[in-house]
Design a protein that fits this description.
The protein contains eight helices and 23 strands. It has 365 residues and is α+β, with helices and mostly antiparallel strands.
Length: 365
């Protein structure tokens, strides 16, 4: 039986939903009861409850307008939204931009786990795509690249490698520019019942331990961690890997400090004292990278009346600057600094004074 409703086409056209599946604007200013009723109706049609108890609302990729509307509707009711979720690996720049515009996260589910890209990460990826298709890869049982071979013993026989990658054409996107990805991976079979570490493996095979948690979903254990970039990760046996990582990091830091160059700059303070500051010449991120490995960095500041000799220690500090408050008026002083790296209370590396270029200032008070 066919039922004709006179004027329905005109009404749907006026509401902007004649050929587009979306929530009409009028609903967003409706009463709480009306908005809740709409949410209930949408969930009755396209909602499910996942194995971990979350409510999921699923739409095909060509129905993103209704996803944006659902997110807006739920947030107007004070409900926390962790998605939208597109169950595929390839996205166009426009699709990513549409998801970003909802101010929600993107959940990518694969056979090997789940990756949640926050809104800032979506903005970075969409900006880098420039019209190309973006492929998100969550791969298990990958191989270390030749340059990553120093991590081979740390991964060991029981460790499992995971590749997380965003491919734009032939190019790989690594950094999220302030964004984050929240990763959930199944506990590897060989590591069930053991203490594990989650490690990030850089292109040179250097391993960094990441904070992680264990979550039980159904009867299975899953590992959760957060990262600020795509790369190679591994879940490894803590007992086997911990000492090897510590030794690798210590050797890496010693090597860095042997070749590092530093420079001192001086500025006059409002009270006519001298502010002395030291920074790495060779790499702007070197000190922060060392700290991210769990080491403590301290600085020793020296002063002399000669450029090339006679430097005496003036201050040891956890900051990379200090204020020199005493001097002889009219005398020119030269400043240098050492950088010291500690593992707990143990000094493991330090720079030499010759590795630091001097800064100078005439004392004028």
């Amino acid at each position: 039986m066919v039922v004709n409703v006179k004027g329905l086409v005109s009404i749907l056209r006026d509401m902007g939903i004649l050929r587009e599946k979306r929530i009409p604007e009028i609903y967003f200013s409706a009463s709480i009861e009306q908005r809740l009723s709409l949410v209930q109706g949408l969930l009755d049609q396209d909602g499910t409850i996942s194995s971990n108890g979350n409510i999921e609302f699923t739409q095909s990729a060509d129905h993103l307008p209704i996803v944006r509307g659902m997110v807006r509707l739920l947030r107007s009711l004070g409900i926390v939204v962790h998605e939208p979720h597109l169950n595929k690996a390839g996205y166009t720049a426009d699709e990513l931009q549409n998801i970003k515009d909802t101010n929600a996260d993107l959940v990518i589910k694969t056979d090997n786990g789940e990756v949640v890209l926050d809104n800032k990460t979506l903005e970075t990826i969409a900006g880098a795509a420039k019209g190309d298709t973006v492929t998100i890869v969550v791969g298990e049982n990958t191989q270390l690249k030749e340059t990553q071979k120093p991590a081979e013993k740390i991964v060991g026989k029981n460790g499992t490698l995971f590749d997380l990658a965003a491919k734009i054409g032939e190019k790989l996107l690594h950094q999220f520019e302030g964004g984050k990805a929240h990763v959930t991976l199944p506990m590897p079979e060989k590591l069930k019942g053991k203490d594990v570490l989650v490690i990030y493996i850089d292109d040179n095979g250097l391993c960094k331990i990441l904070n992680h948690s264990i979550a039980k979903i159904g009867a299975e254990d899953y590992i959760r961690f957060t990262t600020t970039h795509f790369s190679t990760f591994a879940v490894v046996d803590k007992e086997e890997a911990e000492a090897l990582i510590k030794a690798q990091n210590a050797a890496h830091v010693k090597e860095l400090m042997q070749s590092a160059k530093f420079k001192v700059t001086t500025t006059k303070t409002s009270k006519k004292s001298v502010k002395v500051q030291v920074a790495a010449k060779s790499s702007k991120t070197m000190i922060s990278d060392i700290k991210s490995l769990g080491y403590t960095v301290k600085y020793q500041f020296y002063r002399s009346t000669k450029k090339d000799a006679g430097y005496k220690l003036r201050k040891t500090s956890s900051k990379n600057s200090f204020i020199s408050t005493k001097g002889t008026k009219g005398r020119k002083y030269y400043y240098k600094a050492r950088v010291l790296i500690y593992d707990g209370k143990t000094l493991i590396a330090k720079s030499g004074l010759k590795a630091c270029s001097w800064g100078s200032r005439v004392w004028n008070k």
